[in-house]
Amino acid sequence: MLRDPSLKYRPFPTVDLPDRQWPSRTITKAPRWLSTDLRDGNQALIDPMDAEKKTRFFDLLVKVGLKEIEVGFPSAGATEFDFISGLVRDGRIPDDVAIQVLTQSRRDLIERSFESLEGAKTAIVHLYNAVSPAWRKIVFGMTRDEVKTIAVEGAKVLRDEAAKRPNTRWQFEYSPETFSTAELDFSVEVCAAVMDVLRPTVDAPIILNLPATVECATPNVYADQIEWFGRSIPNREAVVISLHTHNDRGTGVAAAELGLMAGADRVEGCLLGNGERTGNCDLVTVALNMYTQGTDPRLDLSNIDEIVKTVEYATRIPVHPRTPYAGDLVFTAFSGSHQDAIKKGFAAQAARNDTLWEVPYLPIDPADLGRSYEAVIRVNSQSGKGGVAWVLEQDKGLKLPKRMQADFSRHVQALADESSRELNAADIWGAFERAYLPGDADRFELRDYEETGASGERVFVGRVAIDGEERSLSGRGNGLISGVIAALADSTGPALDVVDYSEHAIGHGAGAQAVAYLECRTGDGRTVWGVGIDSDIATASVRAVLSAANRA
Ligand SMILES: CC(=O)SCCNC(=O)CCNC(=O)[C@H](O)C(C)(C)COP(=O)(O)OP(=O)(O)OC[C@H]1O[C@@H](n2cnc3c(N)ncnc32)[C@H](O)[C@@H]1OP(=O)(O)O
Ligand SMILES: CC(C)C(=O)C(=O)O
């Protein structure tokens, strides 16, 4: 890298628009969406999609609710042409969906593009040519006027080819490619010249698509450019302003959002941001950003995993686990304080019982995207007691008392540090069993027992193996638990003071079990926890006492 990058690069010029309006606007309704997955997305792949992959992707786009779908570049070759003409011929295009095709502004390519659409009920033909200085100079070697002529001549072919096929409802789209790096007045001049040929009306508007072909500036500059263009283009009511952002600086989504605030009507992009180089604007993110502000994006993204699966299959590019809304890890917290807040958030949500979503660290309800809550909290050495307790509750239905969560968390932390890996639900349950449930190293093991007594006094009479030798014990107390504690204390067992006791059912119906949690203080002032699980709640509490005695 250069120590002085200014020798090689220049700051991007800003737009002179002191009375810009977009910063104080918000997005309050869904735009028209166009998916260019099968065109911009496809042309950027190592292995472009074959007809089977394109068909599967097309069906997904229809299912998601896209009403405008750029299906390819028909003049690129037979694969593209046959797929597009096949879609039309086989009647795969729903009546409320318009397919779109892209063509360079060259007569033979435009004619071929129209041929691919023969018989379509409705279609959008998208014409483009680059207009910015570098492309004029380097790619075309042409003046401004000559570049404008490319667009105008192409538009004439569009007009004439459409006129030959009156049974199709044609719409036209023109992209001054490289718009964001071109002089604004020149883009307006070229677009206006194209409009002079195609004569759009309010009822049959032209789509003027304004690409950030290569993203070269902060998104506010793009928004200024869009607002400037919208104010300057003649016959604005007959124009649909469309955005087509790329992500070279990592702000393709932000640019599209600010572009909408700046007055655009339509957004082009790809599901999950595939596309040339760093990708196109990610339509899923823009739509769900809208959704989380309470605006219906009019796209159905309720099965995000199906979307990911199909996109990965068709593009052969894995979706990054941190991809907004869709990545594998985006609703997962490993860290203790995040887990604690999420757990409390779910509890508060359930207690409030209204529809408003307010769960810390989760900007959207994963269930809205078809995701379960299972993966919301996962445990490793960065986790805390709340996260561990959550996993145990989700997996085994155990709701540990707060102070016991801290006790158990120490066992899990030791295991996580020792293993240096994520702990799954089975690991956590194993740690719980070792910490509190009967095991080989235990001194006291319950064989059977009876409970007798009347008028406020309970008597525990039981057979308990102590250090492997079966003994008959009995003890009295004002309840069963104190009876068991008394029985143990009389026979070499520890002296235990009960500090806290709680119990709850696990599951419902015939298979339901009960769990008892007991917090005790030992004679030497330590706190020990005991847990008992049994189909009978009284037996669970007896087991909990023995569990505490074993830990004492
Ligand atoms: C920003 C975008 O994503 S635009 C879409 C890009 N997508 C694609 O290119 C995928 C499909 N493309 C193709 O299959 C081929 O490029 C084709 C069929 C379109 C053209 O192929 P070829 O005729 O071999 O030309 P090639 O691809 O090399 O294109 C370069 C020529 O097109 C000219 N050209 C480029 N864009 C345009 C345009 N929009 N209008 C008119 N001419 C153009 C260039 O100036 C160059 O002309 P030259 O050969 O006289 O110097
Ligand atoms: C053809 C245009 C819209 C394009 O893909 C781009 O500029 O990125």
From TrEMBL:
Question: What residues does Mg(2+) bind to?
Answer: D40, H244, H246, N280
Which pathway does UniProt place it in? Amino-acid biosynthesis; L-leucine biosynthesis; L-leucine from 3-methyl-2-oxobutanoate: step 1/4
One of the entry's Gene Ontology molecular-function terms is: magnesium ion binding
Any Pfam family from its record, for instance, is: HMGL-like
GO cellular component terms attached to this protein's record: cytoplasm
Subunit organization: Homodimer.
Q: Sorted alphabetically, which HAMAP family does this protein's record hold?
A: LeuA_type2 (MF_00572)
The entry's family comment says: Belongs to the alpha-IPM synthase/homocitrate synthase family. LeuA type 2 subfamily.
Question: What is the annotated role of this protein in its UniProt record?
Answer: Catalyzes the condensation of the acetyl group of acetyl-CoA with 3-methyl-2-oxobutanoate (2-ketoisovalerate) to form 3-carboxy-3-hydroxy-4-methylpentanoate (2-isopropylmalate).
**What protein does this entry describe?**
2-isopropylmalate synthase
Task: Recite the lineage of the species.
Answer: Bacteria, Pseudomonadati, Pseudomonadota, Alphaproteobacteria, Sphingomonadales
